[in-house]
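Hi P.,

Sorry for the delay on this. The queue was packed all week, but I finally got your sequence through. Input first:
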Amino acid sequence: MDKRVDKSDLFERMPVKRAVLKQIVPTIVGQMIVLIYNLADTYFVGLLNEPRQTAAVTVVGPIFVMLTAVSNLFAVGGASVMAHALGTKDEQRARQVSALAFWGGLFAAVAFSALFFALASPILRLCGATDETYALAFGYAKWVVVFGGAGTILNLLLGNLVRAEGGATAAALGVALGGVCNIVLDPLFVLPQFLDMGAEGAGAATAISNMLSALFFIAYVLIKRRRTVVCLSPACLRGAGRYLKNVLSIGFPSCVQYALTVVAVAALSKFVSGYETEAVAALGIVKKLDQLPLYFSIGVANGLLPLLAYNYASGDQQRRHAAFVFGCGVSLGFALLCLVVYEIFAPALTGLFIADARTIEYSAAFLRIMVVAMPMMSVCYPMIVQFQAMGRVKESLVCSILRKGVLDIPLLFLFNALIPLYGCMAVQPVVDSVSLVVALCFYRKLRRGAEA
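Then the structure:
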């Protein structure tokens, strides 16, 4: 019989705070590295001091987020169902689910890349590309989405599956590899002293880095195949079809949240594109900076998911709740720190990305408005993941669509009419506040039901 790594101590017996930290610290580190290499694209393109190049990267941002949406359909659903299976000591089901998630994600990645290539022009125009920025935006998207889409999706997906059985450190290493490669490759591909490819070079660096990260995970699983329940063999798909509905239903809210993020960000970019090109470039810089607390919260949430799902399936609701509360506290504390720092140092922080004075002026103003959303957002993500871990599709879906898409666009029209341009930046704080209130009401009701 194959020898498996026993993770029951981490999930069942280790002190809660220690178990949470053991799961979330590597995941947060991995997310911070992802953030750094995302910032690297904007930073090195910004060194060209050409707002058109920075604006082109901004335009493609929503499409890149859509890759995460496609990945999460199988990554979050697969990881949650895997952790449930492990919580009930059903390794065979965990293996089948992992194979289903992997092959489903790969198929979705190829389909998405092909669809984007066929509809690149209308999609990029919808995201805010103008005649001035279209060619640059397509050059960046060609690498990131068409050539690198599969690498990006499999990188995210395999990291979630490895983390689902307690391999948070290995998952972080895989993500870190891609991040380090991207940071090294960006200046080589972007800057005029080297290959001088500009924004397109940043896309090439990202595509290569994500593919290397995906290959790392595939190699890791193959080497550890006798000690992991993550299975990439098509043979493990036999009988796995009966879990597809469960995987998709749990992953769907996360997919919808990211997909609606695309709609919301594209709508915001479209509103801003009606003003100066410097304003579009400024929005891109601010969206990079506000990713610090966002990625931290995602790291906390992703690290919590296996722990929450395992203990929910095994029936230890007290341990699950304690892990959730501690994780939320960590996420909220960091968000409050970012709020203070960003408000005080907004011009200096945005000035790190570009020397253009007009762009810095817009960026600092945008950042100081949007940063108000961070504390609410920092709790929303763990809350939504909590619902996913519990298999509560309705609650997860409602909170996800409230955060992005349903309220954003009507408020954009209203706020932009009341306060042109700057009012658009106030939408996210309002939306996150509403989503958090609804999520807390849902969770309070679930807690009462569990105690009854």
